[in-house]
Design a protein that fits this description.
It is globular, with a radius of gyration of 13 Å. By secondary structure, the chain is mainly alpha-helical. The chain contains 4 helices and 2 strands.
Length: 72
């Protein structure tokens, strides 16, 4: 599984927000932000807090990226 948070980063730029602003608004840890920066999965609860704070839908902040590696 692979996720992309590029939509979230673009949204922050469009709203002239920095990652630290999002962290303050959503009470996210730097560890969670680092995971998202590396396109790693985070909990639905985290995504829900971001959606609520930014008043967006989950599809506005994260994309599922198809992984080309074959699965067993």
């Amino acid at each position: 599984m692979a996720f992309s948070y590029n939509k979230l980063w673009k949204l922050l730029i469009d709203r002239k927000m920095m990652k630290k602003d999002l962290m303050a608004k959503t009470d996210l840890t730097s560890t969670t932000m680092a995971k998202m920066g590396k396109d790693l999965p985070v909990s639905m609860e985290v995504l829900a807090r971001i959606c609520k704070a930014l008043e967006v839908n989950i599809g506005d902040i994260v994309d599922y990226v198809k992984d080309d590696t074959p699965s067993d």
